Structure formats: structure tokens, C-alpha cells
Amino acid sequence: SKGLPKGHPKKIPRTHILLMAETYSSPPRCVEVEVWLSYDWESQNNSLGSLQYNCFPVALNGELHLRVFMWPHYHSTGVLQATHHGPDCTWPKATDAIHLCQVPSLDTSVGLQSAILHVQNIPIGLHFKLWLYL
Fold first, then answer.
1. What InterPro entries does UniProt report for this protein, alphabetically (predicted)?
2. DSSP per-residue letters across 5-53
3. pTM score > 0.90 for this model?
4. 3-state secondary structure (DSSP) of residue 55
5. Is 128 inside a domain boundary?
6. Structural domain of residue 38, as residue ranges?
7. Can you name the residues that pair with 21 across neighbouring β-strands?
8. Secondary structure of residue 89 in the 3-state scheme
């Protein structure tokens, strides 16, 4: 083929990247992505690119365990393992972005003869039921 370095095979090497995601509340899910590599990919010390996959759901304040590896295994690659922590209601714009964070806040004042429950920051347009068990 024209433009190939001398001694290189005519076939472009390829690999499969396997992404396995697991949460505490669901069984593991796996995605396989086929990647075509450049001829000199092992001699390069830079990134070949990036992969963004947004289809693994994470529960509110949950964890997503990722394991990424290549198949067939190449001598210069290993297994990448990472844990992604899902969003929770503590970051500044969570109330606007996460529906489950749109709840009123509760506070109590306890005296000698009574206890007062304060319901504050009620989101406009949302309705809540408050059950008080004594």
C-alpha cells in the first residue's frame, strides 16, 4: 500500500476495548468498542484519543465501578480500574439539576414543653406530604 512504512503489515491493527460498569444496586453491564489503531501506536507516547460513553446510570450519591481493558492484550497496556462517584445534593447547582434534590429542608427546635418542626426552602410549584409519627 502507498504511504505505509516499510515492513508494516497491510492490515490496520485493531483491538476491542471492554468497559464493565457495576453499581451496588444493579448487575454488571458491559460494552465492547472496536478500535482501529494506527500502525505506530505502540511507539507513540501520547494518547490515541478518548472515549466518552454516557449510558451507565448512577444512582444519586451512588458509585460506578469501571474496568477497562483491551482485547487482545498488548504488552504495553494494562487494566484501568476506576470508581466514579455519582452526584449528590451538596454541590451548588444540585437543586436545579437533580429533581430528587428539590426538597424542603427540615429543622427542629426542642424546648422543655414542646418541639417545633421548621419546614424551610419549599420549592415553588412542588407539593409534599409531611407525616409526623409520635
1. IL-17_rcpt_C/E_N (IPR027841)
2. PTT--SSPPEEEEEEEEEETTEEEEEEEEEEEPPTTGGG--S-------
3. no
4. coil
5. no
6. 14-120
7. 29, 66
8. coil
Residue 86 belongs to a domain? yes
**How do residues 80-110 score in pLDDT, each as one tens digit?**
788 888 788 888 788 788 888 888 889 999 9
Q: Tell me: the pLDDT tens digits for 38-49?
A: 666 666 666 666
Residue 87 Cα to chain centre, angstroms: 9
- pLDDT, greater one: 74 or 131: 131
Number of domains in the chain: 1
Going across the sheet that includes 14-23, the strands are 26-36, 14-23, 63-71, 80-85
- Give the torsion sign (CA, 3, 8, 14, 17): negative
Going by C-alpha positions, the residue among 31, 30, 36 that lies closest to residue 14 is: 36
Neighbours of 64 (CB within 10 A): 19
